[in-house]
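Appendix B. Extra example for self-study. Work through it before the problem class; the solution is given directly after the inputs so you can check yourself.
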Amino acid sequence: MKKTVFLGALTVAGMAAGASAAATLDDVKARGKLNCGVTTGLVGFAAPDANGKWEGFDVDFCRAVAAAVLGDANAVEFVPTTGKTRFTALASGEVDMLARNTTWTLSRDVDLKFDFVGVNYYDGQGFLVSKEMGVSSAKDLDGATVCIQTGTTTELNLADFFRANNISYEPVPIETNAEGQQQYLAGACDTYTTDASGLAATRATFENPQDHVVLPEIISKEPLGPLVRHGDNEWADIVRWTLNALISAEELGITSTNIGELSAAPGDNPEINRLLGTEGNLGEMLGLDADWAKRAIMAGGNYGEVFAKNIGESTPIALARGLNAQWKDGGLIYSPPFR
Amino acid sequence: MSDLSYVRAEMLPERAPPASQVGFVGWARQNLFNGVGNSILTVLSLIFIWYVVSFLLSWAFSPTWNSASLSECREIFGAESGHHAACWGVINDRWQQLLFGFYPNGSEEGTSDLRWRPILAFLLLFVAVTPVLFNMISRRMNWVLLCAVLGLTSLYLGGALGIVVGLALIAAGAAIGYKALTADKTARAAEIEAGAKRLPNPLIFSAIYPFIAPWLLWGGSLWLPIGAALGFVIGYFVFRFLAPIAGSLVGMIVAVLVALVWWLLLTVGFADLMQSIIPIGLEPVESRDFGGFMLSITIGVVAIACSLPIGIVLALGRQSDLLIVKALCVGFIEFIRGVPLITLLFVASTLLNIFMPPGTNFDIILRVLIMVTLFAAAYMAEVIRGGLAALPRGQYEAADALGLDYWKAQRLIIMPQALKISIPGIVSTFIGVFKDTVLVSIIGLLDPLGLSNAIRADQAWNGVVWELYGFIALLFFIFCFSMSRYSMYLERRLRTDHR
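Solution. Structure tokens for the complete assembly:
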């Protein structure tokens, strides 16, 4: 009996919390700041600089949303979340959106009641080995010791991969990426496995990066994207179309340098005009003004510029666009039309 | 026969002991090389120490203080291949962040550097705890200290007003200090005997400090801490008024209830009203901007300061004859001690968030403070219960025989002895709590350890490990070691037995 009452109270509390999620846009506007959940620190994706200003690939997306909604790319309160606290922070309304390299999976989308608004980075799990080992494929890793972060999907993917190929491995459990780097360099494991972007960032910090190589096999799909709560579709639309605006901008050749010129007056390309608000009323449909996409793009540049600035080939991480190239260039990055 | 004699008529002059028995050589012979086995052990130990120290020193002394990234460090000591040395540039770049977290530092447009506020709060902490912790410093020197801290702060803040006030404070401090240093103790005692006015007790400032410190750290209206302090005043007067009429127990209960009503329902309104009449305040700073050692120290100091009184009450409650009080205390202590601190922190960070009515903004640091304090209090209660249990039965009976009531007996006879016995345990708990504050990094607060991860996420410093952890460990060591030394000082000071 008591248990029932308790569960009932839980349900009521949960419903009340759900109901509060209804008008995120109004909350954000009233607050004047966007609460954006990011990681506590991941190279290239989110990190504070010496002055405490956050920078990175995910951070720039938060800024783009803030620019679109509030007109100020700096009107963001970055809330550092860990892998354990991120989902409750979003569900409880502590943050308005998460941009925290979170893999889009069915259970997170459906069971945890979130909406993934799209994919801003296609990642996958890879292996880092030293060249001395003379291994050219992950299938040659029979009997290898593998450094692996415990309690992550990477651990499960690893087990699946080795079982499917009928080879054996010995796991060396580690807690953080920093620990993984140290263990790998100290020779505690033959290979270190995590998301390929993380491996590239790790390799870039080595004293002699050329002695190490990321194996060609990518053993899992890790589509990373921003997410919001279920149940507030207006807000989800805004976040989704901000991401699409950045992607379309790259496709249409709108950059942070030429956007002033392109948005000054309607040009020849109707899609650019619709996107930048010189034609049509797309902004109004979203509940924003006509300049929303222009501000989002000006915050950090289009998708390609954000990529190049934070994790692209000119940075120490030096990630190739690969799957994250525009669909025209053979990648998966694709935005529905602005119409 | 000549005057040959076999007995000396006069004393020989004393001669210095042989060189091998005194000084360093003698000491070394006696303690290090006394026997073959010990000599071998000594030599082996020296070789080991030399090995460790030479490695550490050659690692620590590296000319990398000004480097801007790990790769730049590697270039600096790249000439000697295979040479591993520290890359101190990361500390040079980030020490302020490790100390203050994201506290406004004036780097963003339209903000000013507010870091003087935590520094002032920290310095005032020492002024406030000195009269509580030490009796070696005189009343006047304490006021000198306060004047100096406040004076230097207003000089730093600058402006015509700041400089005038600062100079006045420092002059006042110097005047008091000069008088205190020149007058000797007996003369001063005679003066006081003759009715000379003494300076007010510095404990007054210690009592005000708990209201000043949060105001300095979080900013906002000055009327809020004043309102909070008024709650105590109101409660006190209610007690004074009711106690003679309705008895002390009823008076106490009503006083607490009235104070709670004031705090929960009226304080905010009062602060808003006064703020609209006379606006005084500091620029507010959000809890989210707290980080680094500032966060650790805030949590540590609050937990330490609050857990001791709560712990005492719990320990007494556990020994009480009142059934309900006893059951509540035992239940609380055993429940809190039965769950890990991390669990409590997760409750604070996630569960409370979901259960609270939507829209309530219950500050995350406040939640963590409450949880850490409760955790520390449960442990404190058991430490103090140990002290209570160690007191001989006769002490309790003697207190009863003197006709003291329960609270007087506790205050005058039981607690002074029980607390003295438990000092080592209490201080151990304090040190443990202070170190436990790093667990908040698990719930996403950026304490020093959390920040070390965030700093490594900067492309320039990815891969730096030992330097950051070394720096953090050093600062923690300073705090914990000071606490441990203080506990030893206190034990010596309070040693009243004749061992």
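Self-check: DSSP finds 19 helices and two strands in chain B. If your reasoning did not lead you there, revisit section 3.
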